[in-house]
Design brief:
CATH class: Mainly Beta
Largest sheet: 4 strands, antiparallel
Helix content: under 10%
Number of domains: 1
Radius of gyration: 11 Å
Distance between the termini: 7 Å
Strand content: over 45%
Length: 78
Amino acid sequence: MAVIQSPLPGIFYHKPTPEDPPFRLTGDDVAVGDTIGLVEVMKTFIEIKSEIPGKFEGYAIADGSPVTAGETLAELSD
């Protein structure tokens, strides 16, 4: 199982806006460069992109939760 980690501290969001669906659902294919979420730092939103391909297994933390740099955000399988 591979993981996608946060590159910086902030608040992690699964969706681009509260009204939109999550960037990824369990079972979705993920390619290199696909956005899986956003980290908000001081009102700036940074896209979190996958650096590896795989099947999306799910988010490791809840939507709107604080994260630290290096914390696992999501898991992928081969």
